[in-house]
TrEMBL record, chain A:
InterPro entries per the UniProt record, alphabetical: AAA+_ATPase, ABC_Ni/Peptide_Import, ABC_transporter-like_ATP-bd, ABC_transporter-like_CS, P-loop_NTPase
Family, as annotated: Belongs to the ABC transporter superfamily.
Places the protein is found: Cell inner membrane
ABC transporter domain location: 5-252
Membrane topology: Peripheral membrane protein
Protein name: Putative D,D-dipeptide transport ATP-binding protein DdpD
GO molecular function, one term: ATP hydrolysis activity
Keywords on record: ATP-binding, Cell inner membrane, Cell membrane, Membrane, Nucleotide-binding, Translocase, Transport
Primary localization class, coarse: membrane
SUPFAM superfamilies: P-loop containing nucleoside triphosphate hydrolases
Pfam families the record matches: ABC_tran
Automatic annotation (TrEMBL), chain B:
Keyword Membrane on entry: yes
Gene Ontology MF term list: dipeptide transmembrane transporter activity
Gene: dppB_3
The organism's place on the tree of life at top rank: Bacteria
Any Pfam family hit: BPD_transp_1
Residue ranges of the TM segments: 12-30, 100-121, 144-163, 200-219, 254-280, 300-326
Source organism per UniProt: Palleronia abyssalis
Annotated protein name in UniProt: Dipeptide transport system permease protein DppB
Length: 288, 333
């Protein structure tokens, strides 16, 4: 199996020098689903943004490499990099309510990349969009293509965004907490949908979430992130097994259960946090 | 439908209010229109007769009643100084002012949008500061001062543009309407178009500069916010260039919150035509308004003010319609 995405020693800092990612390394193979977990603020989204080249203003990659299909993105020129990422990577965003342009019809928002980046003709792109909408179980594709975002429901918008991500047959999809903004029943459907499409299209998936329950279902391998630091990485079977990293165990314990939502969540214990902070400080010391 | 009726009613009430206020105020202001019409040696009797002739011997409410009953029938009275029908005088001048204000608005939008886009696209601090500096300068100099500056610089020192009138009298186009610019375009009479534009350019630019700065500032701020929204960032990740992202995803959404303000500022621009038209001897409503005030021509002032009020209301209506047209959430079906 070939590697689609290979991140090595990635350092991301703010202009003020704050380290948001501390030497993160991970790789995703063709057709594989790799989970990226950690508490809110751990830097999960920063990894996706660094790959897609959409880091916020004032935040930059200061060290390390990001290889996509073997090409070092950080060594490419801006235009080349933008094109390569546009062709090979797609994002399923977190919030379907803000990720669609309220002033543009759905159809154009799915086909624009096919037409302008991949060079398809408009008719073919339109057919493809309709096809994909059917794949994500939207019954009336023609109507949805002509609709504005406010005319369809939140769950449907998320399915539109999933369709848009798969439409261009990217090599890698980064799904950044794609179900967090949805209610529980819709969450399950959307997860199943992403899993199905991913298997059918053979797309590599970097699945970002803070929900260990989702990872357990979807991801054969994962990376556990704490404060921009990889604290554990490997096969799900091991991490969900008898002896995981204490932080991973705490995250698993903190996972809400769909069958027992009233059960109070366990916070990550203070001694685990303290141990992690020592670990991170030590790694920083070694790093310089 | 209900909305439209409500709107029509409030419009009528507004216009009525404007009419009452103006009617009273111009009659309280010092200066006698009749005395200004007659030669210095006129007798008391002559003056009294003329006053009666124009109905100025009656009480203000009675005068208003007479005026209003005329207006309802489409009769806006007779200009005292020009001895012509106010309605046809004012409507005859309106096209010249509309064309001037329209051109100024187009210039302001082009200039303001360009500045806002440059200030947004160029990430360097320098570009943004330069745009801010330029805006500050445009905002601190009012339209009539720009007019004077242009007359001196581009009319006298380096005479690039004509600085007086609407059109070269020798052209004298025989047109059906007084919308000379539009009609010359429709008739493909480009010699006339060019001459009109060269006459309009400086006054239109003087009116446009302050508005362009307002547009640039508000739109730049709005763009800055919109450029961080999820769908814009997502479009960037799709591989689109910054400029495509700005025009396709951000601009329309950024324009929406700026429309109302631009509408208000445009009514100021229409107000600005009064002095600027006078400066450039441009034969529009504003120019007519100043003469009317100097001559204490009460019916004419009344008619012009009412027409300006209608223009302001129409501007608001157009802003609302544009907003609805640009925002799919307000559209039906
Ligand atoms: N624009 C920004 N500038 C500076 N720091 C930021 C910015 N956006 C996020 N951060 C910081 O980066 C860290 C990682 O954020 P993020 O990747 O969004 O976390 P998450 O794991 O929840 O996705 C957080 O501590 C956050 O405060
Ligand atoms: Mg995040």
């Amino acid at each position: 199996m070939s590697v689609v995405l290979e991140i090595d020693g990635l350092e991301v800092r703010t202009r003020g020098g704050q380290r948001l990612l501390r030497g993160v390394s991970l790789s995703v193979e063709t057709g594989e689903t790799h989970g990226l977990v950690g508490e809110s603020g751990a830097g999960k989204s920063m990894i996706g943004k660094a790959v897609a080249g959409i880091l916020p203003r004032g935040v930059t990659v200061t060290d390390g490499s990001i290889r996509l299909d073997g090409q070092d993105l950080l060594a490419l020129g801006r235009t080349k990099r933008r094109r390569l990422v546009g062709e090979r990577v797609a994002i399923i965003p977190q919030d379907p309510l803000t990720a669609l342009n309220p002033c543009r019809r759905i159809g154009g928002q799915i086909t624009d990349r096919l037409i302008h980046i991949l060079g398809w003709d408009a008719k073919r792109a339109r057919l493809r969009a309709a096809e994909l909408l059917e794949e994500v179980a939207i019954r009336d594709p023609a109507r949805v293509l002509n609709a504005y975002p406010h005319e369809i429901s939140g769950g449907m918008r998320q399915r539109v965004l999933i369709a848009a991500a798969f439409a261009a047959e990217p090599a890698l999809i980064i799904a950044d907490e794609p179900t967090t903004a949805l209610d529980v029943t819709v969450q399950k459907q959307v997860l199943r949908l992403i899993g199905d499409l991913q298997a059918r299209h053979g797309t590599a998936l970097l699945f970002v979430t803070h929900d260990m329950g989702v990872v357990a279902k979807l991801c054969p391998s994962l990376t556990v992130l704490y404060a921009g630091h990889v604290v554990d990485q490997g096969k799900a079977a091991r991490i969900f097994g008898p002896a995981p990293h204490p932080y991973a165990r705490a995250l698993i314990a903190a996972t809400p259960r769909y069958d027992r939502p009233e059960e109070s969540l366990l916070p990550v214990p203070q001694d685990v946090i303290d141990a992690l902070d020592r670990e991170v400080a030590q790694a920083d010391g070694a790093h310089g | 439908m209900q909305n439209a009726i409500l709107r029509l009613l409030t419009t009528l009430v507004t216009l009525f209010g404007v009419a009452v206020v103006v009617f009273v105020v111009i009659r309280l202001a010092p200066g006698d229109p009749i005395a200004m019409m007659l030669p210095p040696g006129a007798s008391e009797d002559d003056i009294a007769r003329l006053r009666a002739n124009y109905g100025l011997d009656r009480s203000v409410p009675a005068q208003f009643g007479i005026w209003l009953s005329g207006v309802v029938q489409g009769d806006f009275g007779t200009s005292i100084s020009l001895r012509q029908d106010v309605g046809s005088l004012v409507l005859g001048r309106l096209p010249a002012t509309l064309e001037l204000a329209g051109l100024a608005l187009i210039l302001a939008i082009l200039l303001g949008t360009t500045l806002a886009v440059i200030g947004t696209l160029r990430r360097q601090r320098m570009a943004e500061s330069a745009v801010d500096l330029w805006n500050g300068m445009m905002l601190s100099i009012p339209d009539f001062l720009w007019g004077l500056i242009f007359i001196v610089l581009l009319g006298v020192v380096v005479p690039l543009f004509p600085i007086s009138g609407r059109i070269d009298p020798s052209l004298n186009p025989d047109y059906a309407t007084n919308f000379l610019l539009l009609e010359s375009l429709v008739r493909l009479d480009f010699r006339v178009t060019a001459d009109l534009l060269s006459h309009m350019f400086l006054p239109a630019l003087a009116l446009a500069l302050p508005l362009s700065a307002v547009i640039a500032q508000v739109l730049k701020q709005s763009l800055k916010e919109v450029m961080h929204l999820d769908y814009v960032v997502l479009a960037r990740a799709k591989g689109f260039t910054e400029i495509t992202v700005l025009f396709r995803e951000a601009l329309r959404n950024a324009v929406l919150p700026t429309l109302t303000l631009v509408g208000v500022q445009f009514t100021f621009l229409i107000g600005g035509t009064v002095i600027v038209e006078k400066l450039f001897s441009y034969e529009g409503l504003g120019n007519l308004a100043i003469d009317a005030v100097i001559n204490r021509d009460l019916p004419l002032i009344q008619g012009i003010v009412l027409l300006f009020a209608v223009l302001f209301i129409a501007t608001n209506l157009i802003v609302d319609l544009t907003y609805a047209a640009l925002n799919p959430r307000l559209r039906h079906g």
